[in-house]
Amino acid sequence: MRHLLDTESLSRDNAIQILDTAQEMSAVGEREVKKLPALRGRTVVNLFFEDSTRTRISFEAAAKRLSADVINFSAKGSSVSKGESLKDTAQTLEAMSADAVVIRHWASGAPARLATSGWIDAAVINAGDGTHAHPTQALLDAFTMRAHWSQLAGTPSVGGDLAGMRVVIAGDVLHSRVARSNVWLLRTLGAHVTLVAPPTLLPVGVGHWPCEVSYDLDATLDAGVDAIMMLRVQAERMDASFFPSTREYARRWGFDDARLARLDELKLKDTIIMHPGPMNRGLEISSSAADSARSTVLPQVRNGVSVRMAALYLLLSGEMREQATPAPSNAKDNS
After folding, report:
1. Residue 31 annotated as binding?
2. d(CA 250, CA 174)
3. What reaction does this catalyse (predicted)?
4. Is position 277 annotated in a ligand binding site?
5. pLDDT tens string for the chain (335 positions)?
6. Cα–Cα separations (whole angstroms), residue 185 to 89, 163, 239, 306
7. Where in the chain is the domain with CATH 3.40.50.1370?
8. What is the DSSP letter of 328?
């Protein structure tokens, strides 16, 4: 496996391999000297056509902890803002002998285009493309879940999957590449996934995804859940009214204080609350829920560095298990 472009084509073996390697990498962050020489002499380029803070910094920290040289490339203030194409940018990076390109792009399918075009001889990692995929976010979410449930069971997480776990993903599914990537990865790892959203924030074709769909968050919680992932309402991608008001949205689909208390009433003491960030406090999640002992928001950020270290290491060392090349996935914005 040469690139990491999505989770739909990621095999269970490769997913488990990344998660197991991330478990080993997590120990590096606890050392006095947080460095490994694994990628010394390699060059990793962070190629970001969309603004980002968490993802870019996380990839930068991951590469530097592996002793790689890092080049941060932002579209703003670069030749891209003057009209330079993705092809020309890629060929510039090829001339710089980049070993890996971490790309975030506003257009769905851009990382796949870069990986298969022949413009560049480098490993490509998708750091988010349009509303299509965000594989390392899904992997760090799965890593966080696996670590939590392994700790509860008192068993090692290495080699394990998420079989039988009930995961709810709620909110703006329509515009969320995180939701798409999580649905496919969690299915691969054996979890049962339910999407909860207003009908207007569900994509066309969601009935063909490997998950259940509900419009009632309270009923879904009452049925039992091991993890609830709240999605950010992406107002910047909305050019129409997808719900009556923010107050109505928070009441029906936000994880508020009442729903936090409801978990205790249902005796779901081990249920965790997740969010990929950044959060709209008071809209899709209350401050009490975000800051509660159930929240894994900060562990997700911390685990993101370990997972991205694992992905970079496995791809650049050539140790990622080979798998058959999958058929191209549908990368249309609203599919």
Report:
1. no
2. 17
3. carbamoyl phosphate + L-aspartate = N-carbamoyl-L-aspartate + phosphate + H(+)
4. yes
5. 899 999 999 999 999 999 999 999 999 888 888 899 999 999 999 999 988 889 999 999 999 999 999 999 877 655 555 457 889 989 999 999 999 999 999 999 999 999 999 999 999 999 999 999 999 999 999 999 999 999 988 888 888 889 999 999 999 999 999 999 999 999 999 999 999 999 999 999 999 999 999 999 999 999 999 999 999 998 766 556 777 788 888 999 999 999 999 999 999 999 999 999 999 999 999 999 999 999 999 999 999 999 999 999 999 998 886 643 344 444 444 43
6. 31, 12, 30, 18
7. 12-133+301-317, 135-296
8. P
Whether residue 54 is annotated as binding a ligand: the answer is yes
Q: Is 55 annotated as contributing to ligand binding?
A: yes
Q: Is 269 annotated as a binding residue?
A: no
AA identity, residue 219: A
Q: List strands edge to edge, sheet with 212-214.
A: 212-214, 192-196, 166-170, 227-230, 272-274
Contact 45, 71 (CB under 8 A): yes
* 267 touches 223 (CB < 8 A): no
Give dist(CA 166, CA 5) in Å, integer: 26
| Ligand-binding site membership of 113 (annotated) | no
The reply to whether 82 sits in an annotated binding site is yes
In angstroms, the first-to-last Cα distance of the chain is 25
CA geometry: angle 291, 296, 299, nearest 5 deg: 115
Regarding pTM above 0.90, the answer is yes
Query: Position of tokens 């207003």?
Result: 198
Element (H, E) at 125: strand 123-129
Under CATH, which number does the domain 135-296 receive?
A: 3.40.50.1370
Alpha-helical (H) ranges within 27-173 are: 54-65, 86-95, 110-116, 135-153
Q: Which of 280, 331, 317 is CA-nearest to residue 106? A: 331
Q: Provide the CATH topology of domain 12-133+301-317.
A: Rossmann fold (3.40.50)
The answer to whether the annotation marks 252 as part of a ligand binding site is no
Alpha carbons 249 and 318: distance in angstroms, whole number: 46
